[in-house]
Amino acid sequence: YETLLNAAAQALDAGDLDGAVTAYQNVLADDPGHPEAKLGLAQAALLRRVQGMDPQKVRREAAEKPKDADAQIAAADLDLVGGHVEDAFGRLIETVQRTAGDDRDAVRRRLLELFEVVGSEDPRVIGARRALARALF
To answer: Is the Cα torsion angle 51, 42, 109, 120 positive or negative in sign?
Structure first.
């Protein structure tokens, strides 16, 4: 896997987020639990999602539409890329509480993806997992 992981790292360094995502996916196709590839894929996918976003527009839409799952997900992605981990997690947990059905599930899934980016051992992730469990049940 070393060759694919090196290719992914080189793609990231070159700003080729699609190439990095593909390389990490190739590792995970053979080894679905590979920790470095899971983390790398989560990070590259996050960077790819926020690329080209207009931060002011995203934040304005999130403020104006607190029940809009897509608006909150986009704002949480920006929060996380900006280093505001607790804000990203809190935003999505509150959105889980305000939404239902497919919207709620989409928000929950994105929160789980962001947990991967930060790392499951991080105390902020552990606390947010508990808060998510309370919000869901």
So the answer is: negative
